[in-house]
């Protein structure tokens, strides 16, 4: 039985916890405010779920989902995440996160920053371009016509294969961009960010993506 450790229980984290339980995964969910604040969510999720501290969620997870604001990644439990497969859901919002030079200059991506912080982990980008509410409504069985697709990126092919299988369990096809440095193709304001697309449409969208610096500037 695979256990999902979830660090961050906001809109995306709570929805992924619901998907995990609904698809037969055990879930250990955590946030920055402590397990007592998650009693309602855990009661909703049932016996497959429990609340914990972030370090405990990281230690327990066969897969660990990091879904906290980018400015808070320095608070992650680094020892417990060493050697783990870590899924990064983050997007960069300067008004929330402050300006980060490597992202402003587009010399790195959010997932690469996390990988730099966790050199012994295998980071895979996923779930960053779907609205949280759609996570539990848009999934369909494998082979369904026009099944929604989601993008992943990661430097480790085996880790990407594991996340592809997770997405399939959750009801989504996968568009695999390859290494983490290709993750910019699905960052905010790119064509694939947000809308529901099947695999063909999403491949077209990520192929059409351009860098922020190349986007027309508003007058």
Main sheet: strands, sense, barrel: 8 strands, mixed
The CATH topology turns out to be Rossmann fold
**CATH top-level class:** Alpha Beta
CATH architecture: 3-Layer(aba) Sandwich
Q: N-to-C SSE series?
A: EHEHEHEHEHHHEHEHEH
Mean pLDDT: 96
Keywords: Oxidoreductase
Protein name: NADP oxidoreductase
Organism: Cryobacterium zongtaii
Pfam family, one: F420_oxidored
Write a structural description.
Keywords: Oxidoreductase. This is NADP oxidoreductase. GO terms for molecular function: oxidoreductase activity. It holds the Pfam family F420_oxidored. Residues 4-92 form the Pyrroline-5-carboxylate reductase catalytic N-terminal domain. This protein has 219 residues and is of the alpha/beta class. It has one domain (3-214): NAD(P)-binding Rossmann-like Domain (Rossmann fold, 3-Layer(aba) Sandwich). The chain has helices spanning 11-22, 39-45, 54-60, 78-81, 94-97, 101-104, 110-117, 132-135, 157-170, 199-208; strands spanning 3-7, 26-30, 49-51, 63-66, 85-88, 122-125, 149-154, 173-176. An eight-stranded mixed β-sheet has the order 3-2-1-4-5-6-7-8, with helices on both faces. β1 (3-7), α1 (11-22) and β2 form a beta-alpha-beta unit. The longest helix has 14 residues, at 157-170. The model has no long low-confidence stretch (mean pLDDT 96).
Q: What attributes does this structure have?
A:
alpha/beta, STEAP_metalloreductase, NADP oxidoreductase, Rossmann fold, oxidoreductase, NAD(P)-bd_dom_sf, P5C_Rdtase_cat_N, 8 strands, 219 residues
